[in-house]
Amino acid sequence: MSWNAYIDNLCASSSNVITEGVIIGLNGAIWTPKSADNIMKIEQDEAITVGKAMTAKDPAYFQANGITIGGNKYMFLRDLSGEGKIITGKKSAMGNIVVISTTTAVVIGFIPEAQQDGAR
After folding, report:
1. What distances in angstroms separate CA 13 from CA 17, 19, 38, 103, one per listed residue?
2. Which of 16, 55, 78, 89 is the most buried (most CB within 10 A)?
3. What is the pTM of this model?
4. Rounded CA gap, 75 and 25, in Å?
5. Is the pLDDT of residue 116 over 90?
6. In 3-state terms, what secondary structure has residue 62?
7. Where do the H-state alpha helices sit in the chain?
8. What is the reported pLDDT for 34?
């Protein structure tokens, strides 16, 4: 299974509430190349920053600077896990993101403004 197929599964399992996603390594390597409509754009420097912040498991960086993905700056909302592993952000009139770290990767999902988190 390709990494892009994981994004297909992520979108489908959310009943398409999540419309785009991307997977990066904790080292900032981009695992899902932008080759499909549901792959979220992320720049290399953004991936490195997100990877470092998620490796630290401390949301302080995102609280101070926001979360930038694909040139869009999302306001930090909360750390759902309380351990820096599940971070949410919002960009007004655009939508929300959820950033989840695993032992080796970071999965980022995008929920458009018209959708509602957790709606299924």
Report:
1. 9, 11, 14, 22
2. 89
3. 0.91
4. 22
5. no
6. helix
7. 3-13, 44-56, 60-65
8. 79
